[in-house]
Amino acid sequence: MNYVIRSVRADEWALARELRLLALRDPVAHLAFLETYEEALAKPDSLWKERTAGVAEGADAAQQLVAIAPGGEWVGTVTVLVEEAGTEDWAGFPVERRQGHVVGVFVRPDARGIGLTEVLFDAALEWAWGREVERVRLIVHEENGRAQAFYRRVGFRPTGVIVPLPADPDVRELEFVLEPARGQGPSEVV
User: Fold this and answer.
1) Candidate from 24-33, 102-111, 114-123, 163-172 with smallest mean pLDDT
2) Strand-by-strand arrangement of the 168-178 sheet
3) Tens of pLDDT along 166-185?
4) What are the residues facing 157 on neighbouring strands?
5) Residues 119, 140: contact at Cβ < 8 Å?
6) Cα–Cα distance between 26 and 132 in angstroms, integer?
7) Which of 18-22, 88-92, 160-164 has the lowest mean pLDDT?
8) How many CB atoms lie within 10 A of CB 159?
9) Would you say 16 and 51 are in contact if contact means Cβ atoms under 8 Å apart?
10) What is the model's pLDDT at position 9?
11) Do 190 and 122 meet the contact criterion of CB atoms below 8 Å apart?
12) Of these four, 7, 9, 17, 30, which has the most CB atoms within 10 Å of its CB?
């Protein structure tokens, strides 16, 4: 595989925006993202610049990783946020321990099925464990079977925690977590 996996750089906000807009046009985007294409398209460049800078190379609280094809095209992405113990997450749930939170997972359809998502996740988890988080979690829509199958394959397990969406309380999102291997500290797991 000749893809480059690396953190975004702050000055690459236009590429990050382009990939996000592409992700929001995916047929299952309504199950995977808490934002619509139209909402994202309406955001000013200043927001995209700020958003990218906050997850760029060198940031400590979040990191966006991208997969770049041999021709230079961005074909995949994943972002990891660090959530600190004693705070509340985006849904208002208390964060009980320092943890990574995986969001914004997307790989272009033409790059799926070749192991690229696994490589992106490996890099994201390596970054998270390097921040000494105690676990890594993600939230997935109950009807997004493709994503759930992938997350299980790479070691994530459902916790039983159900996260209702404020915009539609009838929609259920499920929490999945990955704990460090037994006998290893968070920074020793890759």
Assistant:
1) 163-172
2) 4-7, 62-68, 74-83, 99-107, 135-141, 168-178, 157-165
3) 777 788 899 999 998 754 44
4) 177
5) no
6) 33
7) 88-92
8) 12
9) yes
10) 98
11) yes
12) 17
SS (H, E, C) the chain: CCCEEEECCHHHHHHHHHHHHHHCCCCCHHHHCCCCHHHHHCCCHHHHHHHHHHCCCCCCCEEEEEEECCCCCEEEEEEEEEECCCCECCCCCECCCCEEEEEEEEECHHHCCCCHHHHHHHHHHHHHHHCCCCEEEEEEECCCHHHHHHHHHCCCEEEEEEEEECCEEEEEEEEEEECCCCCCCHHHCC
Give the residue, 47 or 93, on which the prediction is more confident. Answer: 47
Taking the C-alpha atoms of residue 119 and residue 178, their distance in angstroms, rounded to an integer, is 16
Only one residue has tokens 């997972």, namely 105
Structure tokens given for 188? 């020793």
| Residue 71 in tokens | 């021709």
Could you identify the residue written with the tokens 């619509």? 36
Q: Which amino acid is at 171?
A: V
